[in-house]
Amino acid sequence: MKITQVRATPVNIPLEAPFYWSVGTYPGTTKTIIEVETDEGIVGLGESPSGDCAEVINNDMAPRLIGYDPIDIAACEMRCLPEWCVVQNTDDASVVKAFGGIEIALWDIRGKAWNEPLYELLGGAVRKKIPFTEYFCFRVEKDGRGGEVSPEAVADYCVKMREEHGSTMFEGKLTLGDPHLEVATVKCLREKLGPEVMLRLDSNMAWSLSTARQILREIEPYNIRNYEDPVATFEEMAALRQHSSIPFSSHVPDIRRAVALGVPDTFVTNFAVLGGINRAIRFIGACEAMGVGFWCYSGDAGVCTAAYLHVSAAMQWIHEPSQSLKRWQIGDVIQGGPFKPKNNVVDVPEGPGLGVELDQEAFKHRHQHYQENGPVDHYNNPDNPDFFRRLPLD
User: Fold this and answer.
1) Which of 11, 53, 254, 371 could form a disulfide with 366 if both were Cys (CB 3.0 to 4.6 A apart)?
2) Which residues pair with 173 in a beta bridge?
3) Where are the domains of the chain?
4) Which residues lie below 8 Å from residue 104, measured CB to CB, with a gap of 6+?
5) pLDDT digits over 81-110, tens only?
6) Contact 14, 79 (CB under 8 A)
7) What pTM was estimated for this model as a whole?
8) Interatomic CA distance for residues 105 and 354, integer angstroms
9) pLDDT 10s digits, 109-136
10) Into which CATH architecture does domain 3-114+361-373 fall?
11) Tell me, what DSSP letter sits at residue 53?
């Protein structure tokens, strides 16, 4: 089997209403969908986590891969990436993210060629129902959706999700610049949801060390399962750990520093960021050996989500729920998408490879949205469009 074409297409996946995060509003995501075609008619699907990967793939990596065997993933990586130790010490991660998306597509081809779901190629399933959290945030109102801008409104939304979808695992961002508002919202969430519901928080590095100390001291009695990036660095996390027993997580997948400093307790990322499924499995294995947790972040389209489902099915160490914005996504690029949790879980697709196929009409529509609007702006300041939203100062 030989690769005949590699095509990367940027797409926008809007949300039903923008939500506030530490330095802007978040109206959706931009992803790159990858199609790797072969001379045997098999097409593998992959996904990279940002639109800038499309140019790297189409202009640089695609010509390098024509004529190569898609089953030989190591050879394909050697065609596209420099020596790994060098890549890891440069400030340009686009090549890793770009090839990571291609590598997912190569695994999809392998599964389709052997008529096996990906989790079988990885050793079989230890679980087939994969947990996800429901998301909450302060949200902008749009077309009758969103508009949760008070502690009571956020808590009422979560109660509604529990009643309608059986959700008892929640994660969210409460960073509007007021630490007292975050504390008040945590108290309201716990009061309305009860003691058993899982609550995780994420500030996207919004707080200074002194403010984070204050917040964590006040919310610790409310059984917070995890706090993602409460401060900007691992070193500040280590200092914060002296004042709080709440576990921490981070999007920065630096396992050496995490082991040396004792924080974070968990890494939150996706497979393309790590260089693909093969490298993700090795990274997760290192996390297991060192007692560091792992789950995936939110906002991916259905292709990368399917990869997460299969790997989570095959790897016992991924036992905590991933983040999920699926409830808020307007459409997807896959048939039947987006995946949406029911009673906290999503079933693993059972088809060969990733078990998903493109919805060509939806795929075209999502790409057209990108062409007309450009990549999604995550840094918009609704209060002052001429300036980026700034982190709160103490």
Assistant:
1) 11
2) 137
3) 3-114+361-373
4) 34, 44, 45, 46, 47, 271, 272, 276, 277, 303, 304, 307, 354
5) 988 777 766 656 789 999 999 999 999 999
6) no
7) 0.95
8) 9
9) 999 999 999 999 999 999 999 999 999 9
10) 2-Layer Sandwich (3.30)
11) H
